[in-house]
């Protein structure tokens, strides 16, 4: 079971946007879309590019440099040129004194041999 760390308040990440945060010296993109708030490594698997600077499209995030779109639940690329998944992290929303806080797991979600996160 992962530990969680509080990284932002929900209002910091408006719907349809991404925010870069740092957890244990790892850059993570928080993404708020219609299906919830997700945390995915901020580093594209194709090159060292910040995914949080990309565009949120239908609950995916599109790398701004070459256009690969990544599934926010699995980290898997949906379009080339990226071919490898980026790590994902569990997210939980915690209400505290009337404010909704975003907490992220300190370790990435384990993946199985086919690269998909294990539940
Ligand atoms: S750097 Fe992200 S798709 Fe090329």
TrEMBL record:
Residues 5-100 form the Rieske domain. SUPFAM superfamilies: ISP domain. Pfam families: Rieske. CDD domains: Rieske_RO_ferredoxin (cd03528). InterPro entries: Rieske_2Fe-2S, Rieske_2Fe-2S_sf. Keywords: 2Fe-2S, Iron, Iron-sulfur, Metal-binding. GO terms for molecular function: 2 iron, 2 sulfur cluster binding; metal ion binding. This is Unannotated protein. It comes from freshwater metagenome. The lineage of its organism: unclassified sequences, metagenomes, ecological metagenomes.
């Amino acid at each position: 079971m992962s530990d969680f760390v509080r990284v932002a308040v929900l209002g910091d990440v408006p719907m349809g946007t991404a925010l870069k945060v740092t957890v244990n010296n790892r850059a993570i993109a928080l993404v708020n879309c219609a299906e919830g708030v997700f945390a995915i490594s901020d580093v594209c698997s194709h090159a060292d590019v910040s995914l949080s600077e990309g565009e949120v499209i239908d609950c995916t995030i599109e790398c701004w440099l070459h256009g690969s779109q990544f599934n926010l639940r699995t980290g898997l690329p949906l379009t080339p040129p990226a071919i490898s998944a980026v790590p994902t992290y569990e997210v939980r929303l915690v209400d505290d004194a009337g404010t909704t806080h975003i907490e992220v797991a300190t370790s990435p979600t384990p993946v199985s041999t086919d690269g998909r996160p294990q539940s």
